[in-house]
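Quick one before lunch.
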Amino acid sequence: MAVFAHPDDEAFGTGGTLSKYAAEGCDVYLVTATRGEAGEIAEPDLATSADLPFVREQELRCACRVYGIHAPRFLDYADGLLPMVHQGQAVGKVVCLIRELKPDVIITFGPEGIYGHYDHIAVHRWTTIAVDMAADPGCFPHHVDDACEPHQVSKVYFRVMPEEQIEAREEGGKPRAMMMDGVPFPFVGRPLEEITTIIDVSAHVDQKLRGIQCHATQVGRQNRFVEEADDLIQDPGFKREHFLLARTTVGWSDELETDLFARLR
Ligand SMILES: [Zn+2]
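Model of the zinc ion complex:
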């Protein structure tokens, strides 16, 4: 189960991983807190501000079909406002989904939220708190019935960007920051020695690229993922996805992990 804030958050750093585990027969679920309606529309004929939540929901449904995972679950919050919503109710929604879907492994943002987006940081907080609460029968007892029992997640991973990927962006002439409300929020990278888990998604790069294309109102019809597809398929930064194992009930490995289900199989 992956928990992110906006449609397309799953695409760039985890689209290959979601596709890989779906192809292996895992039940893969994506939970997205908002419909991304506060973002800009890449090409004006693709949507209007009035129907953007609907269009971005359809785009995320398209991406999930491409990855081969279950249809997305939404927390139904307004884009850009996650730090302002009722935090207890938000955690409760994630607890409820964990108890319903019973994931062995959860992926979410790290505390840096890739570039400090407050929605990303809120989702990181909700998800990590919900993992503990979902396992405790005393927490949210009204959820618990015959169909919805407490559930212990075995591993929690943060989707992270290696520092070298940010340096490669810079060398390729791409900005080192995301613009939000007119100011740059720098990407926050992790040194390679902190990264616990690298997933090789070479066999699923095509799905990852097609998943990104589904998010047309975000990336546009013509974009570098179309124009540079042949290069991206070869690019180690694109065909590997990076994670940090944050919690585990099955022990830690001394070696670099290459499987989110290591020690669980
Ligand atoms: Zn986002």
